[in-house]
Amino acid sequence: MTANIKVAERKCYINGRFVDGRKQFPKINPVDGTVVAQVHEADRAMVDEAVRAAKAALKGPWGKLALQARVDLLRKVAEGIEKRFDDFLAAEVADTGKPVSLASHLDIPRGAANFRVFSDIVRTYGTESYWLDTPDGKGAVNYAMRKPLGVVGVIAPWNLPLLLLTWKLAPALACGNTIVAKPSEETPSTATLLAEVMHEAGVPAGVYNVVHGFGPDSAGEFITTHPEVNGITFTGETTTGAAIMKAVAPTVKPISFELGGKNPGIVFADCDFDAAVAGMSHAIFSNTGQVCLAPERVYVERPIFDRFVAALKAKAEALVLGFPQDKATNMGPLISRQHREKVLSYYELARKEGAKVVTGGGVPRFGDSRDNGAWIQPTLWTGLPESSRTVREEIFGPCAHIAPFDKEEEAVEMANNTPYGLASTVWTRDLSRGHRVGQAMEVGISWVNCWFLRDLRTPFGGAKLSGIGREGGLHSLNFYSEPTNICIKL
Ligand code: NAD
Predict the structure, then answer these.
(1) Is 258 a catalytic residue?
(2) For residue 240, how far is its CA from the centre of ligand 1 (angstroms)?
(3) Pairs from 444-449 (Cβ < 8 Å, separation ≥ 24)
(4) What is the reported pTM?
(5) Residue 292 is a catalytic residue
(6) CB-defined site of ligand 1, < 6 Å
(7) pLDDT along the chain (490 residues), means of 10
(8) Out of 258, 296, 301, 353, which one is annotated catalytic?
(9) Which of 107, 114, 155 should be mutated for ligand 1, with most atoms under 8 A from CB?
């Protein structure tokens, strides 16, 4: 329960010191509406100080560290997260309300794993070289040398706070950059705890700075428009990505964007039925549907359509919406009342657009403190046209529309008929079809008979409105470093 959680103070972390903001804002726990943290907001001068500290650190001890020493420090950070696993878990759960069972399996372990993975990969990161073979260039060699971008602004969302922050942070640090990070205003806590871990690990002052706040006219904008920030890596909504693109244009910064999605799931009649139902239920409802990769559009081959809808409905109705600490809980609240308003507006819109509500569609009543939180019912619809807004726009809640199809080509066409292109999941026992349909998806990541499975060395990112660039493994290192080409005539 959250009643006995004491209100934490989340300060900014600049140049190796925790500092107060001139203003503070409360962080509300979405389980029961209580205040769990007071967050210090950074103003423009504080962001400027953080950028100056980060710039100075590039020339200080951090910039002079040998690669192996940097890798050793990053491994210490991974160990530090693991040593304080319970603190990170409690902070993440208090900010998000997500079940302890989820955060302890996914968010916190991946926070540590991101540092380990990129420590390993950066050790083998090579560069290219070529002997020139032109009449005037004979005997000359071209080789590339990779340098850090410099000061990297990391702007993170609230759905997987530590996981997504460290996903950017770890490769950026591995490449030798310094960081000004802005966690979401909804999830300030684990980024702040990470500052303590960095400090304890011996990461020099100025290398990792945290500035709390919002987007426009706040820390987010102050980072993106800062002339001394050399690159921006961002995860969040597509519309925010567009605003950031505009903001960075005058200073021409490199950007890496992981944005929104409206992902399709395609279920063929020859699938392993139980595995497909379990897999799709997991994909739609995990983290209360607040996963960029979650399928909000499900296409099911007609012969199994009714049976599949009934089985998915049974799964939705069996979800346990409980306090995060309860072992049986497998669905938490949405992140905030404000986000619930947005999701509920789509629940309303779906009805207006003519959907049949298979299950859910409203707010659950508990008769306890949860009634002050941001809970919502898991919801499934059928019967909407593909042109409806409910089927076209990202909702980011525990909901999906299910439609039947008759032919493979029809399913592919419907799946791809979206301005987004993040992820897809296809279920079939026919592996030829699995490859064929999997490859036909216009997305950054295409799963077959699974969802959210990935080796962290593989490319990750979105096509179309779902992002710019790829991260993961060498793709991350390519973004967070910049080659200088040296040509020497021997
Ligand atoms: P958001 O875009 O509202 O906010 C993300 C971050 O950007 C926050 O830290 C916010 O304060 C900051 N921000 C907002 N406006 C800004 C501005 N003008 N300038 C600078 N910073 C600004 O997104 P959210 O609601 O936190 O997260 C949910 C969204 O993120 C969904 O659309 C989801 O699909 C997407 N997402 C994508 C991925 C991916 O890998 N593609 C992963 C997770 C979430």
Answers:
(1) yes
(2) 6
(3) 444/470, 445/293, 447/423, 449/271, 449/272, 449/275, 449/276, 449/279
(4) 0.96
(5) yes
(6) 155-159, 164, 182, 184-185, 214-216, 220-221, 224, 235-237, 240, 243-244, 258-261, 292, 394, 396, 422, 462, 466-467
(7) 68 98 97 98 98 97 96 98 98 98 98 98 94 91 96 98 98 98 98 98 98 98 98 98 97 97 98 98 98 98 98 98 97 98 98 98 98 98 98 98 98 98 98 98 98 97 98 98 95
(8) 258
(9) 155
